[in-house]
Structure formats: structure tokens, C-alpha cells
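Sample 3 of the quickstart, ligand S-adenosylmethionine:
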Amino acid sequence: MSESVRASAAEKPDYGIDAPAVLRNLFLIGGLCLLLGLLLPPVVHLGQVNLAARPTFLWPAFFLLFEACLYLLYVKFGKFRHRDFMLGMHDWRGDEQVLDVGCGRGLLLAGAAKRLNAEGHATGLDIWSTTDLSGNAETATLHNLELEGVASRCTLVSRSAAEMPFADAAFDVIVSNLCLHNLYDRPTRLAALRHIARVLRPGGVALISDYKLTSEYAKEFQQLGLQVQKKRGSLLTTFPPLTVVIARKPL
Ligand SMILES: C[S@@+](CC[C@H](N)C(=O)[O-])C[C@H]1O[C@@H](n2cnc3c(N)ncnc32)[C@H](O)[C@@H]1O
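Result:
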């Protein structure tokens, strides 16, 4: 076997770092507080004010670096556990039409596609924002799908979640992780939620995971006539802690 063939056989999919600037800032500011807490004299005199340097800087350092480590744990391990937790909420037949809203580099998309047979198909929708996910690009996602051996069962669509170009009732299962909070204004988010309800087939299920705004998603789905439940992801492996809104469209 040649070197290049062996190298590509060993290559693993890379699902990127979510909101990379947040992780960088946690480490940077936490590290800076740690240095100040360790290097400054115990009491710093600032005019009339005497600042106790150790507690002032070491407590924030501890919290920020602890959060950075939890975040890193999610990026490296937790996201795979959370993907399996989400996909385990549906009883797969194999012939489902699946939509991943904000698929990024294909974490849930590839996981869902692996549960499909020749009649099933998975579609990933994204705008490929590199602020939200490191190395985010349609080509990077395609490459991951190839490495996972599911590219032939997947299609990628470059559009916003608020402007879904799909027919009504086109999907049996809709998944989404850490995407919808990135639609910053409420009317745009509500437009995305209405599209999800619209393109979901009667009898189908939407599994929408996020770290905030999940009550808003649940309320909107209920108003649109869907049956809604919520489940918390693991507090050990998701950071920030994630909640999954499970919305079923009645037959
Ligand atoms: C934190 S990443 C999560 C990616 C993937 N779901 C995962 O769990 O690995 C958020 C994703 O949402 C996408 N996104 C942000 N705004 C979007 C929008 N308006 N429409 C579609 N996707 C969007 C970003 O491009 C990014 O890929």
C-alpha cells in the first residue's frame, strides 16, 4: 500500500470547534487572570484602594479555565455522545428522509445517514459560518461524509434555515444542534421554526438541540400544533448544557 493511500485510510473526520472564539477567549482571559493572581504582590495599592490580588484574579481564573476545559471536553468527546443521545430518540426504519438544520461539518448528518438504507436520504442545510464552527465549509463537510462512507446518501444545501427551499412535508426526521440561537433576531428564528414545522411530514419528528432559547422553540412548535417534549443532555458531557426539544407532528 502506498504512503498516500495509507495516510488517507487513517484520516479521521474532523467536526471542528464550535464557536472557536469563545473557547479561545475563555483560555486567554482565564490564563491572564491566573498570571496576574500568581505574579502580582498579595496586595496591590491603587490610590486609596487596596486590592487583594489573589482572590480577585485567582477565582475568575479558576472558573474561566474550568469552563474552557468543559468546553474542550464537549468539542473532543461530548458532541459524539450528544449526537448518539439525539439520534437514539428516534426508532429508525432506514427509509427516512432526514434534514439536518445547520449541519456544519456533518456531525449529525453523517450519524443519521449511517442509520439509513438505500431508500433513505439525508440533507444538510447550512450557511457555512466559520464564526460558529472552525473550518466550516461545504467542501469540508463533503470530505467528512466521504470519510464516513455516507456521501452517496447525503445532499448539501447552502441556504439559511429561515429560507428553507423544501416542499411541505418533505422530511420524516429533522435534527439540529447548536444552530438556531445563531439566528439572532426573533422573527428570523420564528421563520426557521415555522419552516421546520412546515417541511416535517405528519407522523414525523423534529429533534432540536440548543443551549438557550429552547423554551421559545417549544412554545412556537406547540402553537403550530406539534406535540412537544424536552429532554436535557448530559451535564457531564455537554457544555454549555444542551436541551433537546422533541416535536412530533400529529398524523
Ligand atoms: C455550532 S455549529 C454546529 C454545527 C453542527 N450542527 C454540529 O453540531 O456540529 C452551528 C452551525 O449553524 C450554522 N448556521 C448559523 N446560522 C445559520 C442559518 N441562518 N442557517 C443555517 N445554518 C446556520 C453555522 O454555519 C454552523 O455550521
